[in-house]
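Notes from the 1:1 (GR / supervisor)

We went over the backlog. Supervisor wanted to see one worked example end to end before approving the batch request, so GR pasted a single chain during the call. The sequence is below; no edits were made to it. Supervisor asked that the structure be written out right there so they could see what the output format looks like.
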Amino acid sequence: MADAGSLSRTMFGLTIRKNAHPDMRKLRREAGDASLHGNKFWKSSCLTMDYLKKHPLPPAARVLDLGCGWGLGGIFCAKQFDAKVTSLDADPSVFPFAEYHAELNDVEIQTWRCRYERVTEQDLAGFDAVIGTDICFWDKLESPLYNLTRRAMRAGVGRVLLVDPGRPPFRRLAERAQEKLDADYREWQTQRPLKAAGCIMRVEPS
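Structure output shown during the call:
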């Protein structure tokens, strides 16, 4: 049997369990498999954390982590910037994984079951930043995420940061936001602790 220590990884100051770790197996038995692909570690999380390390959020920012999955982007914000994090996902079966990793890394998060199109401008006014990693994987997600980003700007959110490996729906979203919301849309890559490449879309009030 593999040593439990070899079934964890450390990156950007976080401890992250691998899928084969006994705790992850136990959570899967209890929570079941996530239906919207939030059931594992996605390498794009490295891009999110690397970008935020180089472009930090203000201390104690109120952060909404969209399509949180395991919640690693938000947990990083809580750990590094003392952010007050709300982890949102349409699939509640991911929340035990996010809460587990928050506790493992000595931070707290709030969870919120909601779909993107139901997040109102009034809801968004309660946040300083919105982040999302690997969440535009279907064509039908492009418009809800664009509209949410637009509502966030109207609500006074200071930053929307979406990250993706570069799927066509995300690229269309980013190009649309670049044209209409003056988004900063660029390629991004990391070599360590994992090799990953993708795209960043950052929108801030004009």
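Supervisor's comment: The beta strands are 8-11, 14-17, 62-66, 84-89, 109-113, 129-133, 159-164, 184-190, 196-203.
Batch request approved.
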